[in-house]
Amino acid sequence: MTNQKKPTKTTLQTLAGKLGISKTTVSLVLKGDGDRYRISRKTQQRVLECAEKEGFVPDFLARALATNKTATIGIIFPDVHESFMSEMLKGIESVFYESDYSLMISTSGFDTEIEDRNIRQMLHKKVDGLILVPYVPIARNNYKHSYMKLLSKTDCPFVFADRLPENAGSLNWIIQDDFEAAEKAVCLLFEKGCRSIGCMSFNLSTSSINNRLEGFKSGIEGCGLPLSSRSIILLDRQDPHSDDITGRLLRDNSLRTEYDGLLITTGGLAHKTGYLLRKALPADKVPVIAKFGRDPDYFDTGMIQIIQPNVNMGIAAARVLLDKILNRDRSPIQKILKSRIIDIGEKNEEKCN
Amino acid sequence: MTNQKKPTKTTLQTLAGKLGISKTTVSLVLKGDGDRYRISRKTQQRVLECAEKEGFVPDFLARALATNKTATIGIIFPDVHESFMSEMLKGIESVFYESDYSLMISTSGFDTEIEDRNIRQMLHKKVDGLILVPYVPIARNNYKHSYMKLLSKTDCPFVFADRLPENAGSLNWIIQDDFEAAEKAVCLLFEKGCRSIGCMSFNLSTSSINNRLEGFKSGIEGCGLPLSSRSIILLDRQDPHSDDITGRLLRDNSLRTEYDGLLITTGGLAHKTGYLLRKALPADKVPVIAKFGRDPDYFDTGMIQIIQPNVNMGIAAARVLLDKILNRDRSPIQKILKSRIIDIGEKNEEKCN
DNA sequence: TTGAAAGCGCTAACAC
DNA sequence: GTGTTAGCGCTTTCAA
């Protein structure tokens, strides 16, 4: 009834007091190192029982301060809306769940300053490792990620996923086979009879997009088709109300009619383009479209889909990071995961939610 | 060249030493309390400069241990794939970004034990607050969330979002107007000429679904239509390969033909149903569908959409939580946010990604 | 105005 | 086998 505000949280000290032994012994036993330090079975037993009875849980912050470890992983995404975020996250979670790590997540909302700040914040909060999906601003060719300097001098292990910043040659990363996937998609379009194949993309100077464009070119050449200045359509704006795909398609007549096949490097752009073309052209004039990204469940777009290994990318990134955290070996690990191409009408497992 | 391993991290102590004053003074000044403690302007100036020069950053864990605050918010989602997660997250982030909080996120993957564990873990990690989107297992009518006990005895403020567990009457929560939205959607179907309106839903005993079902009934009665045992179709499985919508639609002929309007309580289910019905029936026999959830960009489903205020729900939940964290007032805050109904063919802002 | 010192609760090197 | 003790780096009360 008096100032019993504090239910006197059970601490190591409390336990030690109750048992009449020292904090050290208790700590050792509770960590499972009892045998290694040859603490008598009897003592161990008593400690365990008492801890159980008192519902002792070691204070996280105190331990973290002492060990400088937080069992927390930081993850930086460019944006929440990218559908691959949830898939990657699933993969990442599945790995870290086992080891009792928590995930601290932040998105940069397409703003490099925020991205920078978020990375700084995570390092400040002492995450044990970092998974980074870098954001690359559109149409700035020589953009340098300012956080690269920060990262270069941190002890905290990190791994890039999906796309790379500049100079990532000797760092850890997991990406997908953008080049090969684009190449194959072009071949598939060719097999379907397309002879005037174009490629449409946002003009992002990031590795994944670059690789897709290169893969496209290689595919075109591999099929013996000509490559012209009109083969690749680069969009400089993501804003639908300005000089982007809508405007281009409406103004440039030939753009609407000169292709019988189109490789589109991102899903959203593909859906929009498909939507516009279907509106603008008679059905038999709409080019065959191949695109990166999976269609939403239960919507048949009639496009060739390049399915990216997002869940696996998450798993791989998490595993690499865990390895770097646990082992002192800092030699870079780099992986390229395979995509899968789903042909038009090919059976795509159905999901329900 | 020698054992200079440690670049001797700058600490309060270091600074104090360099300046020839005490830690206290430095700490006070750096926290901005210099004036309040009437520390001389000159000293303050010196401290600030020195801290700047040395690039001093207070150690997060040490401060957290001392203050028992982590500037971290825990968020529990049932699953990453629910599209509303990314929208809510956007809202939540927008609020906490300002105040320099980090977000620790975990998903329970439709498993109540994991959900429980995750909450426990977040409390253990000393999050300053918790946003919970509870998972409710399908078809278990009397399910009790075991974490309610845990929460009842924690000091950590928390707020429920989107749906409520049992006994949430006196807790903080933000939900949406499921009842009214369902009711209105039914009226809209009626206005469109539907006279045999059914409702299809997963059989989840959670507040949001219950409210939608009640809203449906109320709407039906409001329109003067009869309510029969066949008005509501409850599905007990989410597994598409078992006795769920697919099976029901294929086996039960009348199910396919007895409705001219359908209210469906979740987006994924609606898309699947629409897909199946369009396949099974001639176009003029497919019932008009109203459903919760927004269609994917650039896909016209021809359904009435009930757009839920997900971003705002995130914002509201975050604000409430922040308020509870900063103020000692613990009286519950509860809000119901409005949904918006988009009629078939109504212009829906287009996005590009 | 400023400083000393007692925490916060745990870890780990070292002593007995 | 078990205990002592010095950190980890910051906050905060109290005294000067």
TrEMBL record, chains A, B:
Domain HTH lacI-type: 10-67
Keywords per UniProt: DNA-binding, Transcription, Transcription regulation
Signal sequence coordinates: none
SMART domains to which the protein is assigned, alphabetical: HTH_LACI
Record has Iron-sulfur as a keyword: no
CDD domains with a match to the protein in the record: PBP1_LacI_sugar_binding-like (cd06267)
Gene Ontology molecular-function annotations: DNA-binding transcription factor activity; transcription cis-regulatory region binding
The protein's name in its UniProt record: LacI family DNA-binding transcriptional regulator
